[in-house]
Batch of 4 targets.
Target 1
Amino acid sequence: MKRAPSPRWIGAGAVAVLLLIQWVPYGRAHRNPPVVRGVSWDSPGTEALARRACYDCHSHETRWPWYSTVAPLSWRIQTHVDQGRAKLNFSRADRSQEEAGEAAETVRRGTMPPQDYVFMHPQARLGLRERQALIEGLVATFGDVRD
């Protein structure tokens, strides 16, 4: 009759897996390319709100927290930043930003900033007035898909 693995062996195996995945290189680049051309914001207030709630994923000015070097979190964070920059990049105002007109709508719907980001970055939490000010500023800066 086979015995089930002891909790000690299961724990040791889990630790070994966590240590081994640290050698997977994805999510370790953590570099910010240079800002090519920043956005001409409608107001300093809009820029401040966007920097607080959006810039970590939608610019080349990402602040990389310490846990962004620990797999598997590093994989998820790098993926979010890569996807965010691909959709809308405030550091690349030199090129067409097809998603820019949708920026206000995503904030209006409450899908941006994402809840898991706000959980880890409480400074990105927007009150009702701040959310409305950001929406109005994004519309003034980029337009709106509802236009």
Target 2
Amino acid sequence: MTLSGAFTLHLLMKLFLLFLGVSLLTVTPGCGGKDAAAGSGETKAGSPTVSAGSDRDRADSNLNRKQLARPAVLGRSDPRFATITSKGRHAKPVIHPKNRPPPKRFVVREVKVGSGPPAEPGDRVAVRYVGVAYKSGKVRYETWPPLEPPLVAELGVHGNDSAWEGGIIGMRVGGRREMLIPARLSLDSGALDYVFDLVRVEPGTGTRSAG
């Protein structure tokens, strides 16, 4: 091969490599750009889903709190309320129902007013309670030491009975309330008469203003 032939071959090889490099640069961004654009679109489309889920969780939490039944607070002498007896400190109350028609709405009375900040939706509370059938006085539900420890619940958060949770709101530690729950709101087959003692309140996150 002559010198000029070798030079021509060398020049052709350089031109080929240059052409190959340009082709790769042109093809790679095209493929990568298409995939990246699709990926970016999926990420953007996915983001609202995550956000919507978070919003939905917050909405569900707010919805649960709004669903708490709020009672009418009546005077202690209202004839629909039972006679309550108990002996000794923290003794389990005995509920003696009145011979009256069952209530059509959720009502409560303050048997004893406690102290400290009132319980609010979202708060974690510990309560003792006895619940009886409104007419017969037969015990249906109870959580009273030493038979059972106090019940701990977050008001309006974990789907307990919305009626009595609503009745706890506004109570203060050491307080006692009697709650008359109509059949349409009770977990039982008929109206219920509850007595609740509030043992402890722990503020929920963000439920109280500072100070």
Target 3
Amino acid sequence: MLERFSRPARDAVKRARDLAAADGAGTVEAEHILLALTQQADRPTARALDDLGMSEAAVRSALAEELTDALQLVGVAVTVAPRPPSRPGRSTPRWGQSAKLALKRAVQVAIDRGHKRIDDRHLLLALGQAEAGVVPRVLRMLDVTPSDIDAALG
């Protein structure tokens, strides 16, 4: 599937996997893709995210708040503890369901728009289309709609 992805889109996907590994996650999820997109400062996608108030810091903060809310909802006490450092030699994270769905949706977004290549903008639009999961909850926390994303990307 990645052969149809542009260089910036492939870079974002690779960065998402690196972020998941650095976090010690066993799987790459949609939130890792979102964070990766915020880190591509030279790309229109990162600028659009920033214009929407979704800088890397804002997204990380919303992700932490979303995790706290989710844990409290199921009765897990939340304490602040430093994240353990990632261990060298840890295996590469597998692709989680939310990331797989985001990548498939990105392909469909490109097809729907008549584009042959999948760009990082298609990734962001696909993330905005998710109806359930961490990323949609984070978008709601940040008061960002799929229409806002579409408009910010021009």
Target 4
Amino acid sequence: MTNKPSLIAGGVHKDNRGRIAFVNDFNFSDVQRFYTIQNESVDTVRAWQGHRIENKYFYVTAGSFLICSVKIDNWKNPSKDLPIAKFILSAKESQILIISAGYATGIKALEENSNLLVFSSSTLEDSSNDEYRFKINMWVKWGDI
């Protein structure tokens, strides 16, 4: 498992029958569960939530999302000037974003009806016991994005 957020590239195949999107290099051995996120509007922001133990894997099935991440330096009182990694994921490009344990994420849909598939390395119970939330504008002014 990588420590820094990283992308696994996939591909898209199109022919007269339609489109197939794939990420053949993704290994599901770490996955315990999955869920989808579809925000009510592009103004909705889900930020900031982090995990010390849980790894997350993000894949866009429709539209596009901005996903920001920060490596937490202190879980009780994190620095406000932590470096931010920003990723734009789109259903047009088949790729999975890996966010390792130790990071917090902020998520914003960039198009209406965007859908984000999230794979988790933890059960729901374990994830709930490993959940840390921070103020929405702690590291990013979402209104400026």
